[in-house]
Amino acid sequence: MLQKIYDWIDERVDITPIWRDIADHEVPEHVNPAHHFSAFVYCFGGLTFFVVVIQILSGMFLTMYYVPDIENAWKSVYYLQTEVAHGQIVRGMHHWGASIVIVMLLLHTLRVFFQGAYKKPRELNWMVGVLIFFVMLGLGFTGYLLPWDNKAFFATQVGLQMAEQVPIIGDELKILLAGDEEIVGAQTLTRFFAIHVFFLPAALFALLAAHFILIRRQGISGPL
Amino acid sequence: MSEEKQQVSRRQFLNYSLMGVGGFMAAGLLVSPIRMAIDPVLKKTSSAGEFVNVGLAVEDITTTPQRVDWQIDQVDGWYESKPGRSAWVYKNEKGDIVALSPVCTHLGCVVSWEGSDKHQNEFFCPCHDGRYTKDGVNIPGTPPLAPLSVYEHKVENGMLFLGKEISRKGA
């Protein structure tokens, strides 16, 4: 039945080459842990992406309950954490995943760094990777405020004070992030929500696409 | 006019025109969203810093710091609230009114005048034993690295009004 549906579509739009192109590629022996166990270090990039997918999915479901409003944000998080079946698990996935994704990303970066895999011709992909790192940190920073509890509030106070220390544009940068000169409040929360849920994920998708296209075009770096 | 005409082919002309029109449309599309996003930076109409009557008559201010608590009208976009503020108010030797913020410049705890029996005539922070002299200057060797902030003040009809909180540079 499924085969028939696939054939019906394939006959009309020829989709086989599309997924072949994406999925069908050789894994060289030196990156295959089945051959050399130490090759597990090559898994960290893929694991980072795997956790990112978890973050996207769990985050999508969290927004079914979450409201970015200072009166209700904390209450909505408390509700989904205590009253909604499995809400605790979904928020737990997003909470712990946020830390794990940074860990995986750093391990991936260390592997690329110590193997020298960033060298010509892959410098551009290293730069894209660094941008992904910054976007991830931004996601962590903006997401931290959203529960609107004391820890979130004061962590953001500190983060905004750090932004204020940037030379020349520091003051403007802080107001741009906080939405107000003095107050970390209603406008800060909506801004951080928008940045966390729309702006940075959009940037992340674009950068990840570039990262993956580059690695497929250039191939994985050779053995040491 | 030179004999050699700068030839612009029909294709080039159309390319440039389309790029120009396309660029113009893209720019037009982005103007309003970007202006909207940076509005707080350009507007700068924070309600913080307006002078508020703190309910203390000037004649009641002594040379001993006393704590005053008051509320400010805070407007945060569409959200209005009345958060509390506090200050230690006294008259110094010259007879000038001084209003110090009680927020410790170390990690933000609340300091008290003579908050410790061991340290007379000083502000004391209970969290990490931070100390300040009467004029709010941090005492070297204690955790805070900057003096206590001061509130701008003015006197109207014999009542004390406090305004913007001004942080002071580290000693």
Cα-based radius of gyration of chain A, to the nearest Å: 21 Å
Query: SS-based structural class of chain B?
Result: alpha+beta
Which architecture name of one domain in chain B does CATH use?
3-layer Sandwich
Query: Could you state the oligomeric state of the chains shown?
Result: heterodimer
- Total strands of chain B: the figure is 11
Q: Termini separation of chain B (Å)?
A: 73 Å
Strand order of the largest sheet of chain B: 1-11-10
First-residue to last-residue Cα separation of chain A: 47 Å
What string, H for helix and E for strand, traces the elements of chain B in order? HHEEEEEEEEEEE
Principal-axis shape of chain A equals globular
User: Average pLDDT across residues of chain A?
Assistant: 95
Function (chain B): Component of the menaquinol:cytochrome c reductase complex. The Rieske protein is a high potential 2Fe-2S protein.
Pfam families (chain B): Rieske
Family (chain B): Belongs to the Rieske iron-sulfur protein family.
GO molecular function, one term (chain B): monooxygenase activity
